[in-house]
Each structure stands twice: as structure tokens, then as C-alpha cells.
Amino acid sequence: MTRWLATLLFVCATAHAAPPPATNEELEKLLADKGLITHMNKAMGQLDTVRQNMGTQASELVSNAMGFLGVPYKRGGDSAETGFDCSGFVRAIYEQTVGLVLPRRAKEQAAATDRIDKNDLQPGDLVFFNTMRRAFSHVGIYVGDGKFIHAPRSGANVRVEDMRSSYWQRRFDGARRPVESAATPPEQ
User: Fold this and answer.
1) Is 12 a catalytic residue?
2) Whole-model pTM above 0.90?
């Protein structure tokens, strides 16, 4: 019986070690008392605003870019009137849509933007390709669903293509995300 009593005492002693779980109301009160819930709600609201702005901006970029489908390619071109080359197209879309002036050449655009993983691509991000046996020789704007819009080459027009095609997969050089601090100031 002594063994049984010792076991019972041990079980009773350890059973009350954990406090009962707090209710949602008790947790909210504790967080409010510590002044954390107001800060947390404010931070979450700010985060939601940033997400909405980014989503709106990306939608505007893609929508604006789609408005130039069919514009002819022109080497060195940077307007719908004269035609676009790849980097001129990207630069014009960013400047017109969000007021961000990117460098003129694709390689310079790659250097002035933040590298991201291909799996993190979002509409409005830049995608780079090696189409002339040199890194970052071609650029386009990611539109979602594995597709991008670009000014491809002489004799072609601005169009949307699938990055998953074997041609573009073999030449993919990386993805980049423009940041305002990386761009050059607008020319006066």
C-alpha cells in the first residue's frame, strides 16, 4: 500500500503544475494592459496598407504595360511613338506608372534592383535573360502565372510570353524587384 500511496502523491503533485489555459478575453485584457494590443493592431493596419498599395501598384504596372501590346520593337526606342527596345519599354512603364526612373540598359537595371528568388516573383517584378551571350542582355516585366511582357527583337512587337518555354528557361538570368532608392532621379 505504501507504494500505491507514494505513486498517488506523485501524480497529485505533478497534476496541478500547469495553470489552466487562458481564455481569449483574458489574453486580450493582458495584452491591452501591457499596451501591446493597440500597437499590434496599428502595425497590422500599416502592413495591410502597404500590401494594398503594393498590389495596386503592381496591377497598375501590368495594366499599363498591357496597353502597349503590339507596339513595334525599335533598337534604342523608348516610346510608343517610335517603338521600344526591351529596357526602354521597362523604363518607360516604370516611369509612367509609378514615377520610378530606372537606368537605360538592361544590365544597369539589373544592377540597380534587388535580387529575388524566382519562386518569389510577383507581378511588376523584372525578369532578365541572356539572349546575346552575355548576362542581363534582355529584360521584361513579370505579369503573373509564369508569363512576362517585353519588347522582344527587331521585326516583332511588344508581347506576352511564357517563361516556362524551353527558350526562355534556358536563358533565364534572374529576377529583380525595383526599389525606389535604387533608381536614378528624374531628369529635369
Assistant:
1) no
2) no
